[in-house]
Structures are given as C-alpha cells and as structure tokens.
C-alpha cells in the first residue's frame, strides 16, 4: 500500500448481493463508478484477500479491501530549489528575482511544474504570510511563459505597502516585446478592456464588458519581420500585453496562443512568446526611496532577436 493512501475494509451488505464490484464499491465507499473501476484496474482492490475484475459479482459478507490513493492538493507549496531562478536583490522586506521561462509564480490547479514560491521555500527564504496560502507574499505575477524581474514580499508591512502600490499603479513595470510586423503608429497607447475569451477559457481577449486595461508602447527597433517594443503597463491584467498586441494584429513573436506565426517562431528558434520583464521600479517599503531592478534578456530571446536583426 502506498503511504499516501486511505485504506478501507468493509463487508458487502446483504442489499448489494449480486452487484458488480465497481457498482458495489461506488455505493459502499461513496466513489463514482468510474473511480471504482480505475482503482480495480490499478490493483488497489482485493476481495476476500484475492484479486478482482470490475465486472465480478459480490456476495453478502465478502470483504472488500481498498487502498484509495490520496490525491495531492494542487495548491500545496512544495519546497523545491528551481534551477535558473536568480536572486537580484534580497533584504529584510523584499526579495527581487529574475524568473526564467517555464516557472509559475505560485501553484494552481492544472500546473505541476516548478514555482517561484516553492523555490523560495526550498532555498530557505521566509516570505510574508499575507494572501492565500499558495500565494503568500505575492504582489505581482508573470505568466509561466514570460521571463524577467519580479518582487516578492518577505515582511507583512512590505506586502501591505507594495500590494497597495501595485493597485494604485505606483509601480513602474517595463517590458520588452518582439512583435510581428511594425505597429502603426510606432508609439502609442492601447486602451481596450480585457475579459476571458468567449470560446477558450485559457485565453483572454479584448471584450466590450472586460476590465479596464491600458498598455503604452514605443518602438525601439524596426526590422524586416518584427519590431522590438518597450512597453509600460498602466494596468496589470492576465496576458495583457499579449492580448493587446494581438488585437493590433502584431502578436508577440512565438506567441502561438495569440496568433503568432509558427514558421517565424521556428525560424528564430522560439518555443514561447518573446516577452520579457526588463525593469521594475517602486518606492522601497522600508526607506521609501525609489529603487529599480533590471533583468537581461535570457539566451533564447537574445538569440531570436539576433536572427531577426540579421534577416534580410
């Protein structure tokens, strides 16, 4: 028996005599028929000490012995040092990190990969306890597929002050994005509400009844196939930059979820969107002095940009 299993033994009551094992288990243990059949198929069920098939019939008084594996809570923070997370700054109140691609900020249903909060726990950082248990100390998020600089709070005071600063839009969040084509005008503001996509719940879209969302962009470099933009966010909606650039018909290079060209992504060797949080500036919660932290382009983005620069 697995140590993380709920072990139960019950005799078959007279009223279930002649039932199939999976049907009897569903009634006796409060499981679905499908789950009961899975457990039988995985060898977690014995009848009177012997093996059993799901369509076997049961007799009254027969002992059904079941190991029900305990499913791990998807929101549990698992301490685990994550390769590639770099500490940019650390003091009593905050820790600023350079988040690599492929790392989520915190656990969530459907995500079983590495997380920032798991890394900090594994590396011995004590972070603020405010917020939901899986999101303690978190005042901002970056997508799994977006890399760059972000801050996590270690003290309750820092959490309170910075949470408020993000809410009041007193934090300077600067991103670089490599987008397909050339935005016209070369610099501008996108003010378009964002809501959940009506047909795909993992995506977002510009929606009339969405949440107020404002993105400012400036073109830094214009190349044959793509433009490098500097972007500052006034609001912080999920996927905001990706949704707004796609709405302009200039999706981030490599962003296949939001209309990026797969052949261009292959040409530049990208398996994710070209989007990087390059700078983060705010008033330090202790000194109230303005501080700014920066992150260089990671290798995959730097390589893709070089390919675009050299394309003729």
From TrEMBL:
CDD domains: PseudoU_synth_RluA_like (cd02869), S4 (cd00165)
Catalysed transformations (reactions): a uridine in RNA = a pseudouridine in RNA
Domain RNA-binding S4: start-end pairs: 19-76
Annotated coiled-coil segments of the chain: none
EC number: 5.4.99.-
Tree of life domain: Bacteria
Keyword Signal: no
Keywords: Isomerase, RNA-binding
Functional summary from the UniProt entry: Responsible for synthesis of pseudouridine from uracil.
Entry's family note: Belongs to the pseudouridine synthase RluA family.
Name of the protein in its database record: Pseudouridine synthase
Organism of provenance: Nocardioides taihuensis
